[in-house]
Amino acid sequence: MPWGTVSIRAYALCILLGIVLATIMTSRRLTKRGAEPGIVLDIVLWAVPLGIIGARLYHVLTHPGDYFYEGANVWNPFEPGAIWNIWEGGNAIYGSLIGGAVGAYIGCRMTGIRFWSFADALAPGLLLAQATGRLGNWFNHELYGLPTDLPWGLEISADNAQFPAGLEDGTLFHPTFLYEIVWNLAGVALILFLERKVNLRWGKALGVYLIWYGLGRSFFESIRVDPSEMFLGIRVNVWASFAAILLGIVIFVVQSRRHTGDEPTPYEPGREWKGADAEVDSDETESDSDSLDDDVEGGNDTGETAATSSSRSPSP
């Protein structure tokens, strides 16, 4: 969508919308758990930029043939093909998770929020953001799967740069991005449901997220037809999905053994937010002080009255 000299891309709008939705959802969840309202923004300011950087670097490193070849423009951002030109496409969710985790850790250290508490509050929001971002793949007509005869198959124009060679115009393809949207939204519902049944604190909700997303992505990735680096005959992102599943299992098992109870606070020990408590304590102290003053004044009046009455009473 051109706007003057600036092109506004639907894919970018979908990603931004996903970030906004995830931030709102995470903020509400973390605030309900005792965090200061709005503190999520202090963490997001670190997590989002590093997540974008991580997404781009991961894509470049897993698609080296697209950027590093004889005569390629690698570094000049004013020329097409540079590794910095994120507007030309090329971002990876797993890279954004790695970079975003680093940024979130920095933000949590600065705000005093426990990293595991933030991660658990974020887990369903991550899936919501990813589902929203995947909608951008439909606008771009990209990241589709193998040919299919299913009624919901996606029609891709034969002049598309990624249209598989040797197939006829009008061939339908699996809309893998749509499958992932549905899978991610189901994951949101799953985490919210499990939180009502079992204790998913101390990083365990993050573990469920990694397992769920890794399972779905490993399948959807395996039926995609877009070019990808291979390792031992398997797409790199499938290996990354296996790693996510393994990491999720490890986090869930280890944290389940270490922490059997609920979290007392989302803050690190000694860094709890005392804003609301301080106001309440201040009001109660002031109220108690006023009551004490009234009692003392009342007691003096009573004492003086009693003494006066006693001095005026006749001796028996």
TrEMBL record:
<dbReference type="GO" id="GO:0008961">
    <property type="term" value="F:phosphatidylglycerol-prolipoprotein diacylglyceryl transferase activity"/>
</dbReference>
<keyword id="KW-1003">Cell membrane</keyword>
<keyword id="KW-0472">Membrane</keyword>
<comment type="function">
    <text>Catalyzes the transfer of the diacylglyceryl group from phosphatidylglycerol to the sulfhydryl group of the N-terminal cysteine of a prolipoprotein, the first step in the formation of mature lipoproteins.</text>
</comment>
<dbReference type="GO" id="GO:0042158">
    <property type="term" value="P:lipoprotein biosynthetic process"/>
</dbReference>
<keyword id="KW-0328">Glycosyltransferase</keyword>
<feature type="binding site">
    <location>
        <position position="134"/>
    </location>
    <ligand>
        <name>a 1,2-diacyl-sn-glycero-3-phospho-(1'-sn-glycerol)</name>
    </ligand>
</feature>
<feature type="transmembrane region" description="Helical">
    <location>
        <begin position="39"/>
        <end position="58"/>
    </location>
</feature>
<comment type="similarity">
    <text>Belongs to the Lgt family.</text>
</comment>
<keyword id="KW-0449">Lipoprotein</keyword>
<comment type="pathway">
    <text>Protein modification; lipoprotein biosynthesis (diacylglyceryl transfer).</text>
</comment>
<keyword id="KW-1133">Transmembrane helix</keyword>
<keyword id="KW-0808">Transferase</keyword>
<feature type="transmembrane region" description="Helical">
    <location>
        <begin position="177"/>
        <end position="195"/>
    </location>
</feature>
<keyword id="KW-0812">Transmembrane</keyword>
<protein>
    <recommendedName>
        <fullName>Phosphatidylglycerol--prolipoprotein diacylglyceryl transferase</fullName>
        <ecNumber>2.5.1.145</ecNumber>
    </recommendedName>
</protein>
<dbReference type="Pfam" id="PF01790">
    <property type="entry name" value="LGT"/>
</dbReference>
<feature type="transmembrane region" description="Helical">
    <location>
        <begin position="232"/>
        <end position="254"/>
    </location>
</feature>
<feature type="compositionally biased region" description="Acidic residues">
    <location>
        <begin position="278"/>
        <end position="298"/>
    </location>
</feature>
<dbReference type="InterPro" id="IPR001640">
    <property type="entry name" value="Lgt"/>
</dbReference>
<feature type="transmembrane region" description="Helical">
    <location>
        <begin position="6"/>
        <end position="27"/>
    </location>
</feature>
<feature type="region of interest" description="Disordered">
    <location>
        <begin position="261"/>
        <end position="316"/>
    </location>
</feature>
<feature type="transmembrane region" description="Helical">
    <location>
        <begin position="202"/>
        <end position="220"/>
    </location>
</feature>
<feature type="compositionally biased region" description="Low complexity">
    <location>
        <begin position="305"/>
        <end position="316"/>
    </location>
</feature>
<dbReference type="GO" id="GO:0005886">
    <property type="term" value="C:plasma membrane"/>
</dbReference>
